[in-house]
Recover the amino acids of this structure.
């Protein structure tokens, strides 16, 4: 871990510990075991402060620690703005926000962005969806884009805008280097969409599904595309 990262973490933990120790004195120390609502709220505030500082550290491991903390907070049902802000900061490092040293990109952490995409899906807010769509447009790592598509697929309001954005990504990779796992993630998104919207009427997307069914993809992926095309045909006939 870089010295700067250690110093940041040390400062955060020192402040946090001082606050917690200060909160444990006085009348609350005489209360029965279990936190009061006020004490619990203060603890959550400290957790969010730590997440904020860790997410903004230069060190990759500290960002991963921030994401672990975010996971725990989300499990408690906490979806405060601060969580979205921390995820947004990490979502575009190495893509939109680039730091270079001697011409070398030093803040490109695809594994961090994969986890960010996962937790944005768990967050599930309108702002989270907007961040996922932006990641879909600017990221270039297939491992990140696969997780972005999976998270978008979990959203209840997967819409035509989302499907079109996914198709653009798959077409881009189809031209420069087909990726079977990316194509499979897209196919699941297409399936979810047409099951909720009685089919797919966008010609480019249908053509993309056909391309996957015939292109240089793994057999299982091609078969999945063929099955979806068959289902689409059934939906089309039913709607006539």
């Amino acid at each position: 871990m870089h010295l700067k990262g250690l110093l940041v973490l040390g400062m955060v933990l020192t402040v946090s510990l001082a606050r917690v120790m200060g909160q444990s004195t006085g009348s609350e120390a005489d209360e029965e075991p279990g936190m009061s609502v006020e004490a619990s709220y203060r603890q959550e505030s400290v957790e969010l402060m730590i997440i904020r500082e860790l997410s903004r550290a230069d060190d990759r491991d500290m960002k991963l620690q921030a994401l672990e903390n975010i996971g725990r907070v989300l499990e408690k049902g906490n979806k405060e703005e601060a969580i979205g802000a921390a995820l947004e900061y990490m979502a575009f490092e190495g893509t939109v926000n680039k730091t270079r040293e001697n011409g070398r990109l030093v803040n490109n952490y695809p594994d961090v962005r994969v986890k960010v995409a996962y937790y944005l899906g768990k967050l599930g807010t309108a702002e989270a969806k907007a961040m996922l769509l932006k990641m879909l447009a600017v990221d270039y790592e297939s491992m990140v884009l696969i997780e972005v598509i999976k998270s978008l697929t979990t959203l209840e309001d997967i819409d035509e805008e989302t499907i079109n954005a996914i198709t653009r990504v798959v077409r881009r990779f189809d031209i420069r280097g087909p990726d079977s796992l990316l194509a499979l993630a897209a196919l699941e998104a297409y399936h979810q969409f047409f099951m909720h919207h009685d089919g797919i009427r966008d010609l480019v997307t249908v053509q993309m599904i056909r391309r996957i069914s015939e292109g240089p993809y793994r057999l299982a992926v091609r078969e999945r595309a063929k099955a979806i095309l068959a289902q689409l045909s059934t939906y089309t006939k039913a709607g006539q």
